[in-house]
Amino acid sequence: xxxxxxxxxxxxxxxxxxxxxxxxxxxxxxxxxxxxxxxxxxxxxxxxxxxxxxxxxxxxxxxxxxxxxxxxxxxxxxxxxxxxxxxxxxxxxxxxxxxxxxxxxxxxxxxxxxxxxxxxxxxxxxxxxxxxxxxxxxxxxxxxxxxxxxxxxxxxxxxxxxxxxxxxxxxxxxxxxxxxxxxxxxxxxxxxxxxxxxxxxxxxxxxxxxxxxxxxxx
Length: 218
Prior knowledge:
Blueprint: H1 2-26, H2 30-75, H3 77-80, H4 93-144, H5 155-176, H6 182-196, H7 199-212, H8 214-217
Helix pairs in contact: 5-6, 5-7
């Protein structure tokens, strides 16, 4: 009887273990599936974030380029002027760039022209300063010797002498100079100087003028 009782208990335990094993094998492994699901969701989310970041960066780049072209059209005067060749169409990027290049080249030329004008003005200022110093020295000399120069000829007589000399030179100049072109003018000027401005010729002109104004000198 004891043997039969133990055998019955063993059979019950064996069947219980068998049923437990079968139940455990039929239950799904939810931990592994959850892990795979979260990992796949993470990968998809990372790709979406990268795609979204790339899209935003590309949009910023396009906005920056568009703003740059808009600024150029607002700054460059020729972009605001109406171009009848293209009508009322919006200026293309190529046209905006070309007009910008042309305007920059124009500014460079204007800058060079202004620099040349400034250089010329500086030379004029330097010449005026030299003349100022010379006149100051002349004035000082007259102030130191107030009686000097009372017997000198008047400014009117000096002007008449100068006018007589210039009139004589102009007669030969006008008869010898051709103004058909700048090249002919340049060539005629040099030939006129060589022929009519020799020291002896100038001396004869001055003597002749002085003889004509002799009555005004004495």
